[in-house]
Amino acid sequence: MSDIYLEVNLHNLYYNLSKIRKELNQHTMIMAVVKGNAYGHGSIEISKALSQEIDYLGVGLLNEGVELRTNGVKAPIFLMGPTDDFETVYSNNITISICSITQLEKLIEWTNTNKKEIKFHIKVETGMNRFGINYDQMEKVKFLCENSSYSILEGVYSHFATTYKNNKKHVQKQKDKFDKYIEFFNQYNNKIYYHIANSENAIDYKEAHYNMVRIGNALYGPCNSKKNIGLLKIANLKARVVYTKKVMAGENIGYGNNYKSKNEMNIGIISMGFYSGLGLIKKPLGSKFSSVTIYYLKEIYRYLFKNKTVIYYKGRPLDILGKPNMQYTIIDLSKIKEIQENLEVEIKVSPIFVQDNIKRTYISEVKS
Ligand SMILES: *Cc1c(COP(=O)(O)O)cnc(C)c1O
Question: 124 and 263 share a domain?
């Protein structure tokens, strides 16, 4: 038995997927985004669980896609970031993003030379200015695509910089720009996949569905959409109390002498500290790296200075005594009447902050 593990409920994952599907038209395809170890939930197991249910799996880095293939994932995989390692892309059957003319030229050269097919989606610029080719380059893109029989244009896509809920105008402006690209490509190819919406915008802004949506955080729990579609949290971090003891009144507990017992207390230790993510309570909803970083720093600050409870036993909050250490944390068990061996507590922390070396376990049957 592990001292600490993230328990992932696949039943809730399927439930969330069905709630999301209800928001879409019958023919809208779903790309399930499993980058970042499936937002901490374990990309291999999540991908296998979803393979039969979705149209594409979306990864951010080439090695994430390779890892899925190596572990037997058969579903179509789409790489959202740039790459020019076409050999690896080809041998792992991954569909790639083309984010620049140079990259497109390299792809065409490689596929023509090797006489091997690679499918790709063009990433177009609509107002986020991360990856993406500008509209004035589209004639060039079209020309290159028409002269390559091994590089297969399958899709055209973009990414919203914000949510419909927070900035409707900007989202609409990006959609209008995206429509111009669609008009352009429709003139000569009517079989292209178009996609731009992530979780929140897929839920709140139906006009942005096109033929595919890319769903990340909504699969894993409640997201930041305006409309509440009843998504469920799918993971809980659980820890076994590995050591307990009684402490007399007036004793110091933990580093730094910043906690002194007022009465006789029962204390316990769990083997999780800030190294594994404890103290980083909740991730910001959304996918922007900067907002994640700011939130992360704020949470550390809040945690260290206010000592907010994040540990629960059967729904009852337990105090953390002193600060979490690197790998251990001391908690107050005085409230618990009978302290048994293998007592298990629940820790409220976003899976995204739970170190990858912490075991993930999966529940797939319904609990009665
Ligand atoms: C992460 C990501 C998504 C998924 O975003 P969510 O807000 O988590 O649904 C979609 N598209 C791209 C390009 C991404 O990088």
Answer: no
